[in-house]
């Protein structure tokens, strides 16, 4: 999908905010956590071909970073992958596949907002979750933490694809997250209930309109300007919900709207 080019001052703003700068690139797990806390949320391994903040782009430290075909031998992709594993283990920022399978890091302050938009309440699980997802959830609520193979066995799911889809479904609902990853004796994720890692944030209720506004605020702060449909593409929100969030920022004076679907930080917010 083609979009109009951004003004150079907006690209410069994004370079600074999203660490698309070789002098400030992410090179440690502490720097990665600080980056995620500052931007509010970020993709893991997306590159310059997708909008929004990205840990991989911040590791590369350049605006035009593109993931190579052979990621196994690429040092920047390898570092991003190692940082992802360490971020999961430390548990200071949220990590999971959200809507559309987007592997996303979320700062603690924005977990209630994303949960208000993406989360599934316990009272709605029977209606909104598949039988396979509910089977996995029952096991984890009893065991709290399990490796992939054992979880699949105890949930009684024979088909691997069904199990993977169910795990993705639970991550998108912000109910289950990976808590560790191991490579020896064989590769496996350890899965746990999201509420066990982030109880305060996930039990805190936030009105949906406020949640949309705060997600939009975090993105616009780093982006400087959003083009039509950009927030929806980055977050997986519908265009209508993204528009509601952005218009709320205009109403409070945090943003201006110079054209339909285009929003820019107001002078007061810079």
Provide keyphrases for this structure.
alpha+beta, Arc Repressor Mutant, subunit A, 15% strand
Task: Give an overview in words.
It is a single chain. This protein is 49% helix and 15% strand. The chain has 270 residues and is an alpha+beta fold. The chain folds into three domains: 8-106, no CATH class; 115-203, Arc Repressor Mutant, subunit A; 208-269, Arc Repressor Mutant, subunit A. Helix 5 (111-118) crosses helix 12 (208-223).
Write the layout of secondary structure elements.
Layout: H1 8-17, H2 29-39, E1 41-43, H3 55-60, H4 75-90, E2 94-98, E3 102-106, H5 111-118, H6 125-128, H7 131-143, E4 145-147, H8 148-155, H9 160-172, E5 176-182, E6 188-193, H10 194-197, H11 199-203, H12 208-223, E7 225-226, H13 230-235, H14 239-251, E8 255-259, E9 262-265
Antiparallel strand pairs: 1-3, 2-3, 4-6, 5-6, 7-9, 8-9
Helix pairs in contact: 5-12, 7-8, 7-9, 12-14
Number of domains: 3
Mean pLDDT: 94
Radius of gyration: 19 Å
Strand line-up in the sheet with most strands: 1-3-2
In sequence order, what are the helices and strands, one letter per element?
A: HHEHHEEHHHEHHEEHHHEHHEE
Tally of helical runs: 14
Which percent band covers the strand fraction?
5-15%
Shape estimate: globular
Q: Based on DSSP secondary structure assignment, what is the total number of beta strands?
A: 9
Q: In percent, how helical is the residue content?
A: 40-55%
* Span of the ends, CA to CA: 29 Å
Q: Unreliable stretches, pLDDT < 50, 5 or more residues? A: none
Structural class by SSE content: alpha+beta
Largest sheet: 3 strands, antiparallel
């Amino acid at each position: 999908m083609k979009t109009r080019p951004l003004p150079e001052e907006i690209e410069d703003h994004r370079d600074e905010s999203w660490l698309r700068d070789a002098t400030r690139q992410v090179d440690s797990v502490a720097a990665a956590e600080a980056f995620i806390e500052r931007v509010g949320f970020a993709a893991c391994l997306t590159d310059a071909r997708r909008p929004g903040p990205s840990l991989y782009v911040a590791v590369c430290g350049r605006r035009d970073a593109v993931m190579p075909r052979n990621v196994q031998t690429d040092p920047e992709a390898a570092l991003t992958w190692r940082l992802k594993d360490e971020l999961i283990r430390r548990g200071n920022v949220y990590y999971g596949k959200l809507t559309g399978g987007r592997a996303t890091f979320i700062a603690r302050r924005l977990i209630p907002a994303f949960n208000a938009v993406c989360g599934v309440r316990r009272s709605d699980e029977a209606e909104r979750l598949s039988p396979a997802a509910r089977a996995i959830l029952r096991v984890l609520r009893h065991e709290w933490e399990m490796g992939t193979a054992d979880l699949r066995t105890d949930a009684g799911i024979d088909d691997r694809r069904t199990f993977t889809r169910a795990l993705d479904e639970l991550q998108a609902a912000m109910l289950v997250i990976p808590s560790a990853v191991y490579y020896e004796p064989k590769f496996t994720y350890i899965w746990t209930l999201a509420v066990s890692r982030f109880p305060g944030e996930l039990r805190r209720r936030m009105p949906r309109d406020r949640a949309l506004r705060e997600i939009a605020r975090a993105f616009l702060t780093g982006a400087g300007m959003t083009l039509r449909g950009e927030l929806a593409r980055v977050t997986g929100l519908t265009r209508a919900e993204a528009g509601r969030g952005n218009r709320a920022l205009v109403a409070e004076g945090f943003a201006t709207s110079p054209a339909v679907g285009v929003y820019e930080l107001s002078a007061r917010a810079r």
